[in-house]
């Protein structure tokens, strides 16, 4: 029997996805440090040994959860589009998606907070994640500046840093008080304040 394209047999890929979904649920409830592989295995309906076949360490499972989220976001919102207005529009679309999926936003926010310490297993991931987000938005603001679409006096690097910080900071405030914080409208307002024409 031949392995399915994309790596692994279909049954194995389905089992792997079941484990990742269970991990998301457990991390969301207990945080990364408060969770265990045994609890994830129980939620996924497999043995602890069965889970270890797919993810030999707790760190490997966490990395897979984060990578799956990034891959899904990138594919759905086309975040690898050429720099410019399209990239910024895709980030707004990502925010619109996130407000309909509070569970994954909550998990991401918890992990990001835990991972500020250098010895956290997700620390390097978040360093890369934020660097890539800043670089992507910086290139977009830089291109828009060259096209005369960035307001006078707006520094592309500062605008990028502010936009990324605003996205994550608003997510935390929105999770805390969703009726009072309009995440998407606030992001749009920021972009309208730095661009010469609405997005």
From TrEMBL:
Residues of the HTH tetR-type domain: 13-73
DNA-binding region: 36-55
Gene Ontology molecular function, alphabetical: DNA-binding transcription factor activity; transcription cis-regulatory region binding
SUPFAM superfamilies: Homeodomain-like (SSF46689), Tetracyclin repressor-like, C-terminal domain (SSF48498)
UniProt key word Magnesium: no
Gene3D superfamilies: Tetracycline Repressor, domain 2 (1.10.357.10)
Keywords: DNA-binding, Repressor, Transcription, Transcription regulation
Top-level taxon in the UniProt lineage: Bacteria
PANTHER family to which the protein is assigned, alphabetical: HTH-TYPE TRANSCRIPTIONAL REGULATOR PKSA, HTH-TYPE TRANSCRIPTIONAL REGULATOR RUTR
Protein's UniProt name: AcrR family transcriptional regulator
């Amino acid at each position: 029997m031949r392995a399915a394209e994309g790596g692994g047999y279909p049954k194995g890929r389905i089992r792997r996805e079941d484990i990742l979904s269970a991990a998301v649920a457990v991390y969301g409830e207990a945080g990364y440090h408060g969770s265990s592989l045994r609890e994830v295995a129980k939620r996924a309906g497999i043995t602890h040994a069965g889970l270890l076949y797919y993810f030999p360490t707790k760190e490997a499972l966490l990395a897979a959860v984060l990578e799956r989220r990034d891959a899904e976001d990138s594919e759905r919102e086309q975040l690898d589009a050429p720099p410019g207005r399209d990239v910024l529009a895709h980030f707004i679309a990502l925010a619109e998606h996130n407000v309909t999926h509070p569970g994954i936003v909550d998990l991401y926010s918890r992990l990001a907070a835990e991972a500020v310490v250098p010895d956290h297993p997700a620390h390097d991931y978040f360093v890369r994640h934020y660097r890539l987000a800043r670089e992507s938005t910086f290139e977009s603001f830089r291109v828009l500046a060259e096209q005369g679409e960035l307001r006078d006096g707006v520094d592309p690097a500062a605008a990028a840093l502010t936009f990324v910080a605003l996205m994550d900071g608003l997510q935390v405030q929105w999770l805390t008080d969703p009726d009072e914080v309009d995440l998407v409208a606030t992001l749009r307002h920021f972009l309208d304040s730095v661009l010469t024409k609405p997005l």
